[in-house]
Design brief:
Radius of gyration: 66 Å
Mean pLDDT: 87
Largest sheet: 5 strands, antiparallel
Keywords: Coiled coil, Ion channel, Ion transport, Membrane, Sodium, Sodium channel, Sodium transport, Transmembrane, Transmembrane helix, Transport
Pfam family, one: ASC
Helix content: 55-70%
GO molecular function: ligand-gated sodium channel activity
Number of helices: 21
Number of strands: 12
Family: Belongs to the amiloride-sensitive sodium channel (TC 1.A.6) family.
Bound molecules: 2-acetamido-2-deoxy-beta-D-glucopyranose
Membrane topology: Multi-pass membrane protein
């Protein structure tokens, strides 16, 4: 037992010596005295207990999932609508400035800022005008500028739009402080809608060159620094503004650097307010007055006059940005809200414009526009004087021109009238003469050329081919009767023979006369010399020949191939008819004397006669149409055209005189 104990003790001692467990050596050392070992044992046990406690504690902590950064998305369904400040880019209204006799002053202040100084100010006797008067009295009026404003579908109360002077000039701020000033859902219908009339026709020189507006969304208590932070919106745009609200809460010292200082001129601490406070204090110290946009406390510092502005405040404002870091201590505020805007543009449609502007509005606007244009163009010195010069010159030139033109025109017109009247009388005489001539010529044609044709036709021509088919058959039957010898009685044969010869010769006589008459007719047309000699009213007969339209009559013989061809054939067929009638007579002789009939000769007589007559009838009608009647038709046509022209001329003269 003791041997085993001995062995245990020695191995314990050995373990205590070689283990890295610090201090265990002193507990297991058999040579050390008991109280010392006991103290060591107590110490070790206590340390072990602490160790176990700490391990348990850490493990428990680990399983409690601790975090050091806490990001929490807070969905807020009711958000406070920010204050909306809008400023016209144009600070001064032309008509108001003109009424206050400040147009030239403002123009010079802002178009020649380098050279404008207190001396120039005195020349305008404007040194005692305060900045407040200058800006407020000629700013765009709320009722003109904010044409229409709708908050959640209802017109905005007048009390919700406040006039406010900012670093950008006179602006208007929409602030709905009532219960209604919260929005619960997005969309144009649930927010603010503004229709603005920037009154561009009222624009004049001023601190800003742009057209349109500047807009800033900001917290209700904040002083808006529109000039520095605002967003520019061009005219004619339909702008949608989305808003995102960012709330920032900073940690104060010693963790962060945020600090809400108390300010002298403002109740709410923001960095902007601090800067402005600092600037105001400096302006008050140096100049004893402030600019319009700076805050005040109990009326101090007062607003500068223009004299003080140019003498002092201008320098302060110019040097302030560089000095502000040294002069002002503006820590980050511990809590502030940012309104991040998300702007999209569309152009305003003409239809919407028309819809927006009622008839009344339009009339009122037109009136304002006219007044403003009149003022601005009156005051735009360069343009005005240039236009005036141009106008004078134009007037002078116009007068000269008018004199010249009037004199010249009068002369020209009166001489033209005289000339036209003379000419008209000439023409009228000519016309009357010409018309008389036409009628005279038509008369000559009718009476002295065509009337003979009618006479020949009546007496000879119409008999030439009269019943030519029966006529030649009658001849033929007689020839046959003479030839076949059936008629025994000599005297009857003789009578038949004589009868037949009479028949032939009378027709031949007619044809011969026709040929003579035709020759007369065609000669008259070939020479243009009349056949008859009728008298036209009181015109002497001797005038008939010179007055006849000879070239026209001559032309009628050759004016086309029908006239040429059938004019000739008329005579040729008659000539050949005479010959064939003679031939037929020889056939008759043979039948009577020799009682023979050659069928070939008989056919020749009959067919040739028929052929000639048929063709002559056709040739006659063509000849009448193309040659005999043609000149009169031409004259009538000419007379008709002439009359038309004449009537047109007469009408024209009636209109022009
Ligand atoms: C929502 O925001 C308003 C301020 O805009 C605040 O008063 C309100 O406590 C917020 N609600 C929640 C649930 O955060
Ligand atoms: C401006 O005020 C000063 C001091 O009151 C006065 O002497 C001066 O005549 C005034 N000038 C004009 C143009 O009113
Ligand atoms: C237009 O002008 C007249 C008088 O100037 C005024 O009575 C009327 O209310 C105006 N109309 C609108 C729509 O402003
Ligand atoms: C036709 O000619 C014949 C013979 O020359 C003549 O006698 C007769 O008068 C003429 N006919 C007319 C109508 O002139
Ligand atoms: C008719 O014929 C004869 C001979 O054939 C001729 O001499 C005469 O000139 C002709 N007459 C006409 C009008 O053709
Ligand atoms: C009739 O015909 C014959 C033969 O064909 C001829 O010899 C004779 O001369 C003709 N008679 C006449 C009058 O032409
Ligand atoms: C009739 O016949 C004879 C001979 O037969 C001839 O000589 C004569 O010329 C003829 N007469 C006629 C008119 O043909």
């Amino acid at each position: 037992m003791s041997q085993r104990y001995q062995r245990f003790r020695s191995s314990l001692h050995e373990y205590g010596n070689s283990a890295s467990f610090h201090g265990l050596r002193f507990v297991t050392d058999p040579l050390a005295n008991k109280p010392r070992r006991l103290i060591w044992l107590c110490l070790l046990t206590a340390c072990l207990a602490v160790l176990v406690y700490q391990i348990v504690d850490r493990v428990t902590h680990f399983y409690s999932y601790p975090v050091t950064v806490n990001v929490k998305v807070n969905y807020n369904t009711t958000l406070q609508f920010p204050a909306v400040t809008i400023c016209n880019q144009n600070a001064f209204k032309a008509t108001l400035s003109a009424t206050l006799s400040r147009y030239r002053l403002i123009e010079e202040m802002y178009t020649e800022p380098e050279t404008f100084n207190q001396d120039r100010l005195r020349e305008f006797s404007a040194e005692n005008i305060s900045l407040a008067d200058l800006y407020l009295e000629s700013a765009h009026r709320k009722e003109d500028f904010i044409f229409r404003s709708v908050w959640k579908g209802h017109p905005v109360a007048d009390s919700d739009i406040h006039e406010l002077v900012t670093d950008h000039g006179v602006c208007y701020t929409f602030k709905n402080t009532g219960l209604d000033g919260f929005v619960t859902s997005p969309g144009v219908e649930n927010g603010l809608r503004l229709t603005l009339n920037i009154e561009q026709y009222e624009y004049m020189p001023g601190p800003h060159d742009a057209a349109g507006i500047k807009m800033l969304l900001h917290d209700r208590d904040e002083i808006p620094r529109v000039h520095a932070l605002g967003q520019a919106i061009p005219p004619g745009a339909h702008v949608f503004v989305g808003v995102k609200i960012v709330e920032v809460t900073n940690l104060p010292l010693p963790h962060g650097s945020c600090l809400d200082k108390t300010l002298e001129y403002s109740d709410v601490y923001t960095t902007e307010a601090c800067q402005l406070d600092c600037l105001t204090r400096r302006a008050g110290q140096i100049c004893g007055c402030r600019s319009l946009f700076m805050p005040q406390k109990n009326g101090y510092p007062p607003i500068c006059t223009l004299d003080a502005f140019y003498g002092c405040l201008q320098n302060v404002l110019e040097s302030f940005p560089a000095e502000s870091a040294d002069l002002c201590d503006c820590p980050v505020p511990c809590y502030f809200r940012l309104y991040e805007t998300d702007i999209s543009y569309a152009s305003t449609s003409a239809y919407t414009l028309n819809k927006l502007l009622g008839e009344d509005d339009k009339n009122n606007l037109t009136e304002k526009l006219l007044r403003a244009s009149e003022v601005t163009s009156r005051y735009e010195l360069n343009k005005f004087s240039k236009i005036q010069k141009l106008n004078d010159r134009l007037k002078r030139n116009m007068n000269e021109l008018r004199e010249k033109v009037t004199v010249n025109l009068k002369e020209t017109v009166s001489s033209a009238i005289v000339a036209v009247n003379d000419r008209y009388q000439d023409i009228e005489e000519h016309y009357n003469w010409k018309e008389y001539l036409y009628r005279y010529q038509a008369y000559i044609m009718e009476k002295n050329f065509m009337r003979p044709r009618d006479a020949y036709e009546e007496r000879t021509f119409h008999i030439v081919a009269l019943g030519y088919a029966e006529y030649i058959m009658k001849i033929e039957s007689r020839i046959r009767r003479l030839a076949n010898g059936n008629i025994v009685d000599a005297s009857s044969r003789q009578v038949l023979f004589d009868d037949t010869l009479d028949l032939l010769s009378s027709r031949r006589k007619i044809v011969e006369t026709a040929l003579v008459n035709f020759t007369t007719l065609i000669e008259a047309y070939d020479t243009g010399i009349q056949i008859f000699n009728y008298k036209f009213f009181s015109t002497p007969r001797s005038h008939n020949i010179p007055a006849a339209p000879k070239p026209l009559i001559k032309e009628s013989r050759v004016h086309n191939s029908y006239a040429k061809k059938y004019g000739k054939r008329f005579g040729t067929y008659l000539n050949r008819t005479i010959n064939i009638l003679n031939f037929c007579q020889s056939v008759v002789d043979e039948a009577f004397y020799n009682k023979t009939l050659d069928e070939g000769n008989m056919t020749e007589c009959r067919e040739t006669f028929r052929f000639l007559m048929r063709n002559w009838v056709f040739a006659r009608s063509v000849f009448y149409f193309e040659t005999i009647d043609w000149p009169l038709k031409q004259i009538e046509e000419r007379l008709k055209n002439f009359d038309i022209l004449w009537n047109e001329l007469k009408q024209f003269m009636r209109i022009s005189t």
